[in-house]
Structures are given as structure tokens and as C-alpha cells.
């Protein structure tokens, strides 16, 4: 990103809808296989972004109520950030899940509809509205009762004993928004994949017993999924033809546990899932919620996106956890999104930030200065088949008028920053 530029540079306008031929094929249920002839010219450039927008609420129904009308200041700040950056494909972490009114239309989920119509679809402080005609949502493990005492505190119930931390089912869920069609027939979810079914799973050990990896009982492992929320493979059809697999997740924070490090170990294996999934030689064990086996094919284009809750150098995650995807032979991680605002925040806030090994320009979250400090935890990682042309983190310096959208604690939008990457998408062969 150019110096002092919180907003990405404008790009040439491009069609976001599929071609007429591809649209007819999709409407007829023929999917991506009925492709229109490739258009002449350079491969299209697409902006992918991830944003842990903190659009979660304390009780069921609160997010629906907040987004049902304009005027929620946090949602307006989040929407303006999206309108300023203008990603074509956006993953929103921490967006409470509510089932759609029409099972075939994800945009009929009440909070999704409210966010699209009352916030993204309305100019926020002079920014142009932005339209996302395609969306994907699905249930999350957060807040789903396990029936077991997973934190071993002597009682069953509460957010720590849910399949994923949460006070009610669907809290801290996910949402994919796209200006390109989603190949809904090819979407795969991995909400139910069991942690114990991952070969070499880093299962936590009870330090009070001599047996290894025994924090969870066999009965608990029989129901405990790997995903604290879910893992999704959502293929978007660029120009209505070329599939790019959006690999979306939000691993659990590697903290809020004890010496067994159950959350840190789960976080590392949630990240490892995508590292295995993109390599056919390592993904044979994978099964999805419909029983399909295996991961991506060698030629599949993808973008790993989300708040992975792991910094490659600093913080509390397991050493090497983030490197599992950053160093994957199929991932293009050489271009690291950055911002001037993150560098300024380190200098102004001090504390743990001054002891960090990582480059502060790459930070994506403004955490407590005492510990852990600001970290790089949000990622947009394209496959090597996608050429990166630009990238950035929306973290304006304080002198920039748009810094009102990020601010300092208590944040007007989120303690995380939107991260974006532009890639060239070659046509499918």
C-alpha cells in the first residue's frame, strides 16, 4: 500500500456478474461445467478480503435487532471500512449465525439481510454503497452444548463446555459475501470433522496423570469436532467461470486454558487442516459433512482466509502454528499485507509491542499493550497459481481522517483490521 494511503488505490471497473451464457447455465443447474468461452484480455483482477468485524452480540437475536434498521454505530463503521476497501469477495468473522428464512437464499438470514440492506447498501459518511448479491452462511459449533465437562471444572454447561466457545449456538459465526457467483453445489463444510480423526492430532494431555493425550475421555473425543466454528470450502466463480476456493475458518484463540494448552493445540490443528487440505498427498483422511473424502486437486486455485488467531513470531500460539500455511508449497505468502497505522500504533502504545520479533507493519489486530500486544493474526493467502498484484491492511495513521473508523480501545469498529489482497485469476483450463 502506498505511504499514507489507508484506502487502496482505485482499480479499473470490472463486471461482477457472470456472463449471460454462464448465468443461464447456472440457472439451469449446470454449474461451472457449462462455461462460456473465455474473454480476451488479461486475467481478471479480484480483491479478496477478510475482516473479523466483531459483529457478534451477547445474546441470541441481538445482532438481528441491531441490523434491522440503520443507526448502529459499530455496524456503520464496519460497513464504511468495507465500502472504502471494496473487496469483491469478503469473509466476515464473528458474525452471529441465524438460519435463513429461505433455506435456498443465504441473504434471507435476518442479520445478513439487515447488514446488506441497511449498512453495506447505504452510503456511510460519503462512501459509495457496495452490493453483494451472493452469500454463504452455515451453522457454527460455537455455543452448541457438548454434554460433557470439557474444561474439567467439575460441572457441565456454559461456553467452555460447548463444542466451540460460545454462550449460544451460532455466536461468533462466519459469513462469506461475494460479487461473483458461488458454486453452491460444490461448497463443502467440515463442521463435524472430529479432532481425533486427524492423523497425528495434537490432543491435549492431562498433566495430573501418567497417560498421554488424555485430557479428553474417549467419549468426549467421539463428539468433539476439530473446528471451533467450522471450516468451509466455498468456490466462487470469477467472471462466472473460473472457480477459486475460498477456504474460510476462524480457529479458537490459543489462550483461556491451563497447562494442558487445549486451546493452543486445537488452534494449531485447525490451522493445519488447511495446510493438509490443499495438498492431495496429505488430505486423504479429510471428510466433509456430506461424507465426501479428500481435499483439493493439484490444479485448484484457492485463497485461505480468516482470523487464524496465530502470529508467526509473537503471541501465545503454538510455535510454528501459522507457518503450517505460510510455508505450504502451494501457498503464495511472499507478499505480506501491511500498513503505516500498525507501525505508528506500536510506537505509540509501547508495552509488549516493543519486544516483538515480527515486523509491526504486518500487524492486523490491536490487542492489549501489556500482553500480548498487537499481532498478525488475520490472513488472506492465495495459492501460487494466483499472482498477487497488491495488498494491504486497513489501519490508517492517526492523521488520516479515516482513522476514526479504527480508533483505539474501545474501538468504533473492531480490534481487528480488514486485510485485503488483489490477485490475477487465470481462466480455468
Q: How many domains, as an integer?
A: 1
- The CA-CA distance between the termini, in Å, is 32 Å
What average pLDDT do the residues reach? 92
The global form is globular
Strand order of the largest sheet: 3-4-2-1-11-10
Tell me the major beta sheet: 6 strands, mixed
Q: How do the SSEs run, as a string of H and E?
A: HEHHEHEEEHEEHEHHEEE
Q: What name is given to the CATH topology?
A: Deoxyribonuclease I, Chain A
Secondary structure: helix percent = 10-25%
CATH class: Alpha Beta
CATH superfamily: Endonuclease/exonuclease/phosphatase
**Level-2 CATH architecture:** 4-Layer Sandwich
Structural class: alpha+beta
Number of strands: 11
Q: What is the rounded Rg?
A: 21 Å
Index terms:
429 residues, six-stranded mixed β-sheet, 11 strands, globular, Deoxyribonuclease I, Chain A, 16% strand, alpha+beta, 8 helices, Endo/exonu/phosph_ase_sf, five-stranded mixed β-sheet
Structural write-up:
- The chain is globular.
- The longest helix is centred in the middle third of the chain and has 16 residues, at 262-277.
- 17% of the residues lie in helices and 16% in strands.
- The protein is of the alpha+beta class and 429 residues long.
- It has helices at 20-27, 62-67, 73-85, 110-120, 218-221, 262-277, 323-326, 340-349, and strands at residues 45-55, 89-95, 134-136, 174-178, 188-189, 232-238, 242-248, 301-307, 378-382, 387-393, 419-424.
- The chain has one domain (40-424): Endonuclease/exonuclease/phosphatase (Deoxyribonuclease I, Chain A, 4-Layer Sandwich).
Amino acid at each position: 500500500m502506498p505511504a499514507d494511503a489507508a484506502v487502496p488505490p482505485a482499480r479499473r471497473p470490472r463486471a461482477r456478474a457472470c456472463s449471460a451464457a454462464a448465468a443461464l447455465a447456472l440457472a439451469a443447474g449446470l454449474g461451472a461445467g457449462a462455461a462460456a468461452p473465455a474473454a480476451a484480455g488479461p486475467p481478471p483482477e479480484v480483491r479478496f478480503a477478510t475482516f473479523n468485524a466483531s459483529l457478534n452480540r451477547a445474546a441470541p437475536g441481538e445482532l438481528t435487532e441491531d441490523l434491522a434498521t440503520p443507526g448502529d454505530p459499530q455496524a456503520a463503521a464496519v460497513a464504511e471500512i468495507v465500502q472504502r476497501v471494496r473487496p469483491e469477495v469478503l469473509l466476515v468473522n464473528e458474525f452471529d449465525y441465524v438460519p435463513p428464512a429461505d433455506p435456498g437464499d443465504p441473504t434471507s438470514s435476518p442479520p445478513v439481510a439487515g447488514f446488506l440492506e441497511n449498512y453495506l447498501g447505504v452510503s456511510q459518511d460519503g462512501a459509495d454503497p457496495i452490493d453483494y448479491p451472493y452469500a454463504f452462511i452455515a451453522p457454527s459449533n460455537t455455543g452448541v452444548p457438548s454434554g460433557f465437562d470439557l474444561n474439567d471444572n467439575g460441572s457441565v454447561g456454559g461456553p467452555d463446555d460447548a463444542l466451540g466457545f460460545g454462550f449460544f449456538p451460532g455466536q461468533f459465526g462466519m459469513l462469506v459475501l461475494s460479487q461473483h457467483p458461488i458454486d453452491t453445489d460444490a461448497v463443502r463444510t467440515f463442521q463435524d470433522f472430529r479432532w481425533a480423526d486427524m492423523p497425528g492430532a495434537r490432543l491435549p494431555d492431562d498433566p495430573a496423570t501418567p497417560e498421554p493425550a488424555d485430557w479428553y475421555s474417549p467419549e468426549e473425543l467421539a463428539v468433539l469436532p476439530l473446528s471451533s466454528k467450522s471450516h468451509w470450502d466455498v468456490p466462487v466463480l470469477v467472471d462466472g467461470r473460473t472457480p477459486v476456493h475460498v477456504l474460510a475458518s476462524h480457529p479458537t484463540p490459543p489462550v483461556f486454558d491451563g497447562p494442558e494448552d487445549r486451546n493452543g493445540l486445537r488452534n494449531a490443528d485447525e490451522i493445519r487442516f488447511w495446510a493438509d487440505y490443499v495438498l492431495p498427498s496429505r488430505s486423504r483422511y479429510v471428510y466433509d459433512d456430506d461424507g465426501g473424502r479428500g481435499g483439493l486437486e493439484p490444479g485448484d486455485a484457492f485463497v485461505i482466509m480468516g482470523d487464524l488467531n496465530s502470529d508467526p513470531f509473537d503471541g501465545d500460539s503454538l510455535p510454528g502454528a501459522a507457518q503450517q500455511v505460510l510455508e505450504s508449497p502451494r501457498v503464495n505468502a511472499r507478499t505480506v499485507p501491511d500498513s503505516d497505522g500498525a507501525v505508528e500504533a506500536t510506537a505509540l502504545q509501547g508495552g509488549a509491542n516493543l519486544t516483538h520479533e515480527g515486523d509491526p507493519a504486518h500487524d492486523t489486530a490491536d490487542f492489549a499493550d501489556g500482553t500480548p500486544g498487537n499481532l498478525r493474526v488475520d490472513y488472506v493467502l492465495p495459492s501460487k497459481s494466483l499472482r498477487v498484484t497488491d495488498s494491504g491492511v486497513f489501519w490508517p495513521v492517526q492523521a488520516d481522517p479515516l482513522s476514526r473508523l479504527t480508533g483505539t480501545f474501545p474501538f468504533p469498529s473492531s480490534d481487528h483490521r480488514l486485510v485485503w489482497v488483489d490477485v490475477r485469476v487465470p481462466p480455468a483450463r
